[in-house]
Amino acid sequence: MPEQKTTLEEKRAVRRRWIKFIGLGLALLMAASVSGVGWIVARDRAFHTVDLSTVRPAAFDRLERWAGVEPGHSFASISTIRADERNDLRPIDSPATPPTSSATNPPTNPPTNPPTRVVLLGDSWVSLDKLTAPVTRGLQTLGMPQVEVRSFGHPGATSRRILRNLFASEDEEFSSADVLNDPEIRIAVLIAGVNDSAGHKGQDFYVHHVIQVVRTLQRRGIQALVLELPEYGIEELHAAQSGARWLRSELFVQFFDAGKVDVIGDYRTALRDGLREAGLLDVVRFIEFEPVAVDYQESIALYQNASHLNKDGQELLASIVASAVADELDPPTRIAPRRSEYQFVSLP
């Protein structure tokens, strides 16, 4: 009997050690996740302390690389960039070359009105031109054949990745730097948040990066239209996970989303509140997702899987986006240039 008692006590001691070991591992993982997200947010905020409206587009890639190497620095010390690069950092009211007279250098061709361009920014919901043709057809139906639609989608991208793609080098696969460099882009439609919420990155993470995208677009004179976080099978995705992915998801759910799996409504509310606090709510137009679907299960016929619309769902979403774009463009003349080169609009 004493030997059996000792054996039971040893087993209990082993269990206690394993419980402590697992608990310590979970605590370390959570601490690493928190510090990682905190560093990311701090770096992004540092990156956007510069008023990008006063920087010529040629310098964007250098600024991003510089921020990546020294994430704790402020762009107030921009003078540290080599002197031979400073020409690209002149304020927009200081042209790189003196204006030439049209009398001495007459244009070879008469000026023409370029098409008005609209861009779709987002994740896999935008990638592979899923919405480009349907939105174009919708605009044509609404009497706007001269509007050109372009898409910049990055499968799996969170709102942070979409923001960084705006400043990525043009030779990168999912770079959307053209959006900031094209003077004819009037409107950008942001379709994001599925990967933020499915990955349970937290409301602050989602709201912070969407606001930075909106600010960047506004400083370029581009009107931002934001599709509210789409309805999708968030609970179904969570339930389908297993192994390490399930453990990671559970940790993020508990730590960043207060133990709640279906956070779609919470993220929507948080974004509106965040934009209001940032003074941007009145300059951003929301596109409601409700006309497409209110509940995933009730509208499952519009979905290819738990996280993506099928072709019918895409056509319906595209018609709603086209209608919102048309409302934003009307009544001004749709073929008039948005601005002259490098004349950006700054936020107050």
Task: Please provide a written account of the structure.
The chain has 348 residues and is α/β, with parallel strands linked by helices. It has helices at residues 2-47, 60-69, 132-141, 159-166, 178-181, 194-198, 203-218, 234-239, 243-256, 264-277, 311-329; strands at 116-122, 147-153, 185-191, 223-227, 285-287, 303-305, 308-309. The strands form two sheets. It has a five-stranded parallel β-sheet. A two-stranded antiparallel ribbon has the order 6-7. Helix 3 packs across helix 11 (311-329) and helix 4 (159-166) packs parallel to helix 7. The protein is elongated. It starts with a helix and ends in a 19-residue tail after the last helix. Residues 43-104 and 332-348 have low confidence and may be disordered.
